[in-house]
Amino acid sequence: MTKHYNIPVFIPEMACPHRCVFCNQETITGFDSAPSPSQVGEIVAQHLDTIKKKEAEKNDIRVAFFGGSFTGLPINIQEEYLKAVQPFFHKGVKGIRLSTRPDYIDEERLQLLANYRVTHIELGAQSMDDHVLRLSGRGHDAETVVEASKLIKEKGFVLGLQMMLGLPGDSFEGAMMTAKAIVKAGAQETRIYPTLVIKNTALERLWRKGSYTPLSLKEAVGMSAALHRFFEEKGVIILRTGLYPSEELKDGSGFLAGPFHPAFKELVLSEIWRQLLDEIPADSSCLILKVNPRALNNAVGYKKSNLRYLESKFSKVKFKTDSSLKNREFYVDFC
């Protein structure tokens, strides 16, 4: 089975023309400065050294520029970064992934990226509701995301559209509308991020004034579970759910409020299983559940939460594995 490796290169806040209300890249990513082009080569080389040569040859390895608005950089800087990666295409790298803003996409920029073998482009859509985008200080509207997505798809890149939950003015219905618009725009990949109140952001000021209330962890997990199921049904790959737990987020030095959890994705996957298991009728005091071995941990639940939930309905609950079952298929036996 092919494995996917991203070699991450963080360029926090470089080229961003707006400071969105939620944004403090240093705290979110744990990086406060961008590497030089020569340092990019060192980063890639160090990561490749940790991957066995045979694995590098048969697996999907990509250099990923994250954290900033890559295509907003001056053309010469973009070229220097991209050139730094080119020698590694002979050493296992299969392509380049980058994230940027939808208002920094045009045919000239896309041609440059194609010339340097960029394969995947992720846009920070965040929301497809113009009201939410204005309140969040994004500086573009939803139509800009649609037009940029169209250009990216026409040029043959893999398109990713990132979304956020709990932005000012947003709702569960708004999040589902955004998810549907992401699918309609042709996204093959997505990321789901809950909005957090981070120090030294405009959102902190709104929160301290009582003008903004973040989602609770329970709300964010429930919304993310619904979005997961929707994207899976539509064949959209979910690259990430929840922010990367940087030290500033984990130790609380940069995080003030909102649904942060270091195992946020596990909570979401456990919640999906809880919803499925909730459909089991309480027709017996004893329950045996068979699931795919790979699904066992999420079926049992984060810190056995689903097991405890079932034990509140049945006097005896036992999980077993069955390799013939796929994904979230499960078989129920009453004893």
Q: How would you characterize the overall build of this protein?
A:
By secondary structure, the chain is of the alpha/beta class. It is built from 14 helices and twelve strands. The strands form three sheets. It has a seven-stranded parallel sheet. Strands 11-10-12 form a three-stranded mixed sheet. Strand 5 (158-165), helix 8 (172-184) and strand 6 (189-194) form a beta-alpha-beta unit. Helix 2 (37-49) packs parallel to helix 4, helix 8 packs parallel to helix 10 and helix 12 (264-277) packs parallel to helix 14 (305-311). The radius of gyration is 22 Å and the shape is globular. It starts with a strand and ends with a strand. The model has no long low-confidence stretch (mean pLDDT 91).
Layout of helices and strands:
Layout: E1 4-10, H1 25-29, H2 37-49, H3 53-58, E2 60-66, H4 75-85, E3 93-100, H5 107-115, E4 118-126, H6 130-135, H7 142-154, E5 158-165, H8 172-184, E6 189-194, E7 197-198, H9 202-208, H10 217-233, E8 237-241, H11 247-250, E9 255-257, H12 264-277, E10 286-291, H13 296-300, H14 305-311, E11 316-321, E12 330-334
Parallel strand pairs: 1-2, 2-3, 3-4, 4-5, 5-6, 6-8, 10-11
Antiparallel strand pairs: 7-9, 10-12
What is the compact description of this entry?
Helices cover 39% and strands 21% of the residues. With 335 residues, it is of the alpha/beta class. The chain folds into two domains: 4-262, Aldolase class I (TIM Barrel), CATH 3.20.20; 279-334.
